[in-house]
Amino acid sequence: MNTTYNTKKIHGVEIFYREAGDKTKPTLVLLHGYPTSSHMYRNLINDLSDKYHLIAPDYPGYGRSEQPPMAEFDYTFENFAKIITALLAELDIQKYSLYLMDYGAPIGFRIASTSPEKVESLIIQNGCAYEEGLETFWDPIKAYWKNINDKEAEATLRTFHDPNGLKWQYTHNVPDVSKISPDNWEIDLRHLERPENGAIQLALFYDYQTNVVLYPKWQEYFRKYQPETLIVYGENDYIFPGSGAEAFKKDLKNLEFHLFETGHFALESYGTEIADLISDFLARKVVK
C-alpha cells in the first residue's frame, strides 16, 4: 500500500504526516522520538501497510511540520499531545494502537491515560515511564532541570544534536554500523538547522521533567486498564537502557517482552524482526 504525504492545519500549525494502508483496518499511530521525525518509520510503514492503517506525524519543529516561533507557540510535551490528539480527531480516528518511541512515549502516555477507551494496544520501543530508565545519559539534563542557567549542562545538551551527536545516537551500540544509513542523521539535520530550533530542543529538554512528574499517573493507568502491550526494545541503548524496559513488568500484566542487541534506534538494526512481531501481536490482540 503506497504511503501518502499530507499536511493538516492543527491549532494553527501545519502538521505533516505519513499515511498508508486501508482505513478500514486497525490503525497504528507511530509517534517518533528525538531528534528525528516520521522518517524513522518509513520502512515499518511499508512492512505493515498491507494489513494495517498507519499514521506517522511530525511534531511542530520536527521533520516537515511547521516550526512556529517560540514566542507564538508553547514547545512542551503537553502541547504536542494536544496537537496529536487534535490531528487524530480531525482524521476521524476513534480507535488506535500507539507505537511509542523516545519522545513519543510521554506524548503517547498522555494521550492514552486521558482517553484509555480509544487505545487498543501499546507498542513501546525505547521510551520511558519509570525513573529506572533515566540513567547516566540523563545527568546533564537533570542538572539543567535544577538550573536552567547552568551553561555547562546547556553546552553538553547542545552536543546531543550536533552532527557528531546525531550520528552517535544512530550508531552507538549497534551490532553492524555499516547497515545504518547516514541519510538518517542528514535528514534530521534539515530541521535541526532551522533558525531557533536549537533553542526549541533545549526547551523540550527542560520540559521533559514534566513527564517524570506524571510517571505515577501513567503507572496507575497501566495498573487500572492493563492495555495489551508489546515491548520491542534496543537493550543496549545508552539513552533509554534495558532497565527502563524491565520496569514496565511491575505494572503491565498483558505484556509481551522482547529485547534486541542494539542501541537507541532499534528499527534500523532489527526492522524486519520488529515488524513481524508487531504484525503478529496486532493480529492476535486487535483484529476482530
Describe this structure in words.
The protein is of the alpha/beta class and 288 residues long. Helices cover 43% and strands 17% of the residues. The protein has helices spanning 42-48, 77-90, 104-114, 139-146, 151-160, 163-171, 183-192, 197-207, 209-225, 242-247, 266-285, and strands at residues 4-10, 13-20, 27-31, 53-57, 96-101, 119-125, 229-234, 255-260. The protein has an 8-stranded mixed beta sheet, sandwiched between helices. Helix 2 crosses helix 3 (104-114), helix 3 (104-114) crosses helix 9 and helix 4 (139-146) crosses helix 5. It is globular. The mean pLDDT is 97.
Helical content class:
40-55%
Tally of DSSP helical segments: 11
Total number of β-strand segments? 8
General shape = globular
Main-sheet strand order equals: 1-2-4-3-5-6-7-8
Structural class: alpha/beta
State the end-to-end distance. 21 Å
Average pLDDT, rounded to a whole number, is 97
Q: Tell me the Rg in angstroms.
A: 18 Å
Strand content: 15-25%
In the predicted model, the low-confidence regions spanning at least 5 consecutive residues are none
The main sheet comes to: 8 strands, mixed
Pattern of helices and strands:
EEEHEHEHEHHHHHHEHEH
